[in-house]
Specification:
9% of the residues lie in helices and 33% in strands. The protein contains one helix and nine strands; from the N terminus they run αβββββββββ. The chain is globular, with a radius of gyration of 19 Å. The protein has one domain: Superoxide dismutase, copper/zinc binding domain (Immunoglobulin-like, Sandwich). The protein has a seven-stranded antiparallel sheet, with no helix packed on it. Strands 4-6 form a two-stranded antiparallel sheet. By secondary structure, the chain is mainly beta.
């Protein structure tokens, strides 16, 4: 019994001294309807969801919806190939919906007059890995829309056309 307890202590000490595994990450390259690069997004798994750090340029000034879509396809010019919002929980759209939002719903981003924006968003109901993770299957997509999300209209917040898209893949 003492030998087993001693072995457990040694294993615990070895685990405590081992470096923590790096969080899952990926970089998404976003394109516009003319297949022109408009920036990147770095996705990092955190204990609270997926942190999305965007660095964008060449977008029209104003408020824009940004969502995670279910399909890893970004076929310009309309990007309809990205499918609907990622929604493994089968919820309704929008943060203002009493039934809960899609996992892929994100806060709007504001693009200033110069067309460049850096922002960090947290997708708290998402994960990169796992059965419902963004890497599952062929992956998913990050999509920017022409208008702001109103956070309530079905199925996509009345956000208008899809103006940029990038693949989320391992």
């Amino acid at each position: 019994m003492i030998l087993i307890a001693f072995a457990a202590v040694l294993l615990a000490q070895a685990d405590a001294g081992a470096p923590a595994a790096a969080p899952a990450t990926t970089t998404v390259n976003l394109i516009d309807a003319k297949n022109k690069a408009v920036g990147t997004a770095k996705l990092t798994q955190t204990a609270h969801g997926v942190l999305i750090a965007v660095d964008l340029h060449g977008l029209k000034p104003g408020m824009h919806a940004i969502h995670i879509h279910e399909t890893a396809k970004c076929e310009p010019p309309a990007f309809k190939s990205a499918g609907g919002h990622d929604n493994p929980g089968k919820k309704q759209h929008g943060f203002m919906n009493a039934e809960g939002a899609h996992a892929g719903d994100l806060p709007n981003i504001e693009v200033p007059a110069n067309g460049k924006v850096k922002a960090e968003l947290l997708a708290h109901d998402e994960t990169l890995e796992g059965a419902d993770g963004l890497f599952a299957g062929d992956g998913s997509a990050l999509v920017i829309h022409a208008k702001a999300d109103d956070y309530k209209s079905q199925p996509a917040g009345d956000a208008g056309d899809r103006v940029a898209c990038g693949l989320i893949q391992k």
